[in-house]
Amino acid sequence: MNTNTALFLAIVHCISAHNEDLCTGLRNQLQEHCSLPESGVIIEGRIGKAGPQGPPGKVNYTLVQEKIEEIYQKFEVRMDNRVDQKTETCSSQIKLLEKRFNSLLTGCEKVSKYGALSWNGTGGIFNIYPDNPQQSIEVYCDLTSDGGGWTVFQRRMDGSVDFYRGWNEYVNGFGEKNKEFWLGLETIHQLTKNGNYELRVDIGNWEGERRYAQYGTFSIAGSNDNYRLTVGDYSGTAGDSMTPRSNGQQFTTKDRDNDGSGGNCAVEWSGAWWYEKCHVSNLNGIYLVGGTGATSKNVAWYHWGNNHVYSFKFTEIKFRRKQN
Ligand SMILES: [Ca+2]
Question: PROSITE patterns in the record, alphabetically (predicted)?
Fold first, then answer.
């Protein structure tokens, strides 16, 4: 029987017995009992009699501190676990998104300037993922010329890089992609071996004029065929100085003679190119500041350059996947 029930029964009894004193006493008790605040409220002062006195003691603050630390550490571990769990879920989701995004960036035809690692106003350096969304290749993309989408594989602009190099360097590439460079025959082959590609050569002279040669047909064979060039279907303003002596030729360097000459055209003309016997273009030749005093060993483009005796200030060679 709880207190409330006992009091209720007592009141019923006192009313039926007409006992005034008992009723008053019970009423007071009931009032006191019912006016008690709800649980959880702190009451100032003591209610009811004090209990028996306990033995004298002292507070062990070290123990209290230890207990608090133990509780806090448990709490910290629980929080860390939750944060770790969340981080793991988030980073795996980010990786998945990255993979999906990368699988879209198969070449310079698919990138936008907002994804550039560095940007110079008309093009920039990008990571592309031609075969595998986890394996990138760093390339320079020209996103402006004739609608953009070009992968640049050669640039001359100031003579800061030596282009008179051997076979392995022409296979693997050299230079810096936002300055003077050669991307590498093997990379060019790998990036163009599937599908149809076109070629563009941009040339600038020392008088500030730019011209171009564009080719609707372009492919480069693999190493087993010494990166033989197929080029054709010319259009442009610079004249066609690729098809006549370079179409159908293997690549030749100073230490690897694959040309149609009795000697080595790369040695003879101080370059590295798809030489026949030998050339009407020599864009990897010696860089001559000012463009004069040339001897065909220079950066030559026969059909614009007053035969061979003009060395150009600027060249860029690039390819793009054809849309159909
Ligand atoms: Ca030869």
Answer: FIBRINOGEN_C_1 (PS00514), FIBRINOGEN_C_2 (PS51406)
Q: Which CATH architecture group holds 149-321?
A: Alpha-Beta Complex (3.90)
260 C-alpha to ligand 1 centroid (Å): 5
Encode pLDDT of 240-262 as tens digits: 999 999 999 999 999 999 999 99
203's CB contacts (< 8 A; 6+ apart) are 210, 211, 212, 213, 238, 301, 304, 312, 314, 315
C-alpha of residue 263 to centroid of ligand 1, in Å: 4
- What spacing in Å lies between the alpha carbon of 105 and ligand 1's midpoint? 41
Q: How far, in Å, is the centroid of ligand 1 from the Cα of 76?
A: 75
| The predicted structure's pLDDT at residue 258 | 97
Surface-to-core class of residue 219, CB atoms within 10 Å of its CB (0-12 exposed, 13-18 middle, 19+ buried): middle
Cα 278 to ligand 1 centroid, rounded to whole Å: 9
Say how many Å lie between the CA of residue 301 and the centre of ligand 1: 21
pLDDT tens digits, one per residue of 207-216: 999 999 999 9
- As residues whose CB is below 5 A from the ion ligand 1, the structure lists 257, 259, 261
CA of 249 from ligand 1 middle (Å) equals 12
| Cα 270 to ligand 1 centre (Å) | 14
- Say what the pLDDT of residue 320 is: 97
- Whole-angstrom CA distances from 309 to 14, 164, 282, 289 are 132, 19, 11, 13
Distance from residue 292's CA to the centre of ligand 1 (Å): 28
pLDDT of residue 158: 96
State the Cα–Cα distance between residues 183 and 187, nearest whole angstrom: 7
pLDDT in tens, 147-166: 999 999 999 999 999 999 99
Summarize the confidence of residues 104-118 as an average pLDDT: 94
